[in-house]
Amino acid sequence: QTVVTQEPSLTVSPGGTVTLTCASSTGAVTSGYYPSWFQQKPGQAPRTLIYSTSNRHSWTPARFSGSLLGGKAALTLSGVQPEDEAEYFCLLYYGGILVFGGGTKLTVL
Amino acid sequence: EVQLLESGGGLVQPGESLRLSCVASGFTFSSCALSWVRQAPGQGLEWVSGVSGSGGATYYADSVRGRFTISRDNSKNTLYLQMNSLRAEDTAVYYCAKDLSSTRAQKMDVWGQGTTVTVSS
Fold first, then answer.
1. Shortest Cα distance from B60 to chain A (angstroms)?
2. Which of these, A43, A102, B2, B91, has the minimum number of CB atoms within 10 Å of its CB?
3. For chain A, how far is it from start to end, CA to CA, in angstroms?
4. pLDDT range class, residue A96, cuts 50, 70, 90
5. Coil, helix or strand for B56?
6. Does the beta-carbon distance from B108 to A48 stay under 8 Å?
């Protein structure tokens, strides 16, 4: 069974920078896993931030960026805002099957 | 504006069936793969199933394969999820999500607001 692993929780100060990562139990994450990142706030549906490793949607603020880092997919938030406090999920593609990570709860404090 | 509206959720007993629908608007429906994603109470997201734009290719998570069937009617701009032999662990909010790809779910963009399924005796 494929497992996708994220940090359970992270804390960042307003205006700071934080990187969330997404690892695959099958090995290094590459662009072929089409990493995506989603933001979810309490009581709301998820919102897609990043697809195919580093592509932002039209609604994604520029302070969110995606990359590959040390064999993992990564989401970096630069100049964190209070409204960025949320849970963040990554998603990896395994040849037709998709697997979400367990999510990272980001606290802005 | 792209919109996805799920319906069909409700309370059912273990072993029963339910069919979810997702009506789409604001984009060329047949050009986009679609997925169902669920979220159990207090838990993370779980991808359930995906279908290509034509409907000819379908994909399932191991947890639902053989019990759930995804389909689409491109003439009605509607995605379906037929859920049979429901179990308590299928209790969740079910979301449909549109993809930028036409062949398989790889690049989700817009999500619906979800419909709640509760399996309990």
1. 7
2. A43
3. 36
4. confident
5. coil
6. yes
Contact A14, A82 (CB under 8 A): yes
Whole-angstrom Cα Rg for chain B: 13
Residue A76 identity (one-letter amino acid): T
Mutate to test the interface with A, among B39, B52, B100, B108 (most CBs of A within 10 A): B108
**Looking at residue A57, what DSSP letter applies?**
P
How confident is the model over A58-82, as pLDDT tens digits?
999 999 999 999 999 999 999 999 9
Q: Which residues have a Cβ under 8 Å from the Cβ of A7 and sit 6 or more positions away?
A: A20, A21, A104
Rounded distance, CA B77 to CA B73, Å? Answer: 6
How many residues are there in chain A? Answer: 109
Nearest in space to B2 (alpha carbons), one of B108, B120, B119: B108
List of residues 6+ apart from A61 with CB closer than 8 A? none
Paired tokens of B18: 């339910």
Rounded CA-CA distance B95/B6 in Å is: 7
Residue B106: pLDDT band with limits 50, 70, 90: confident
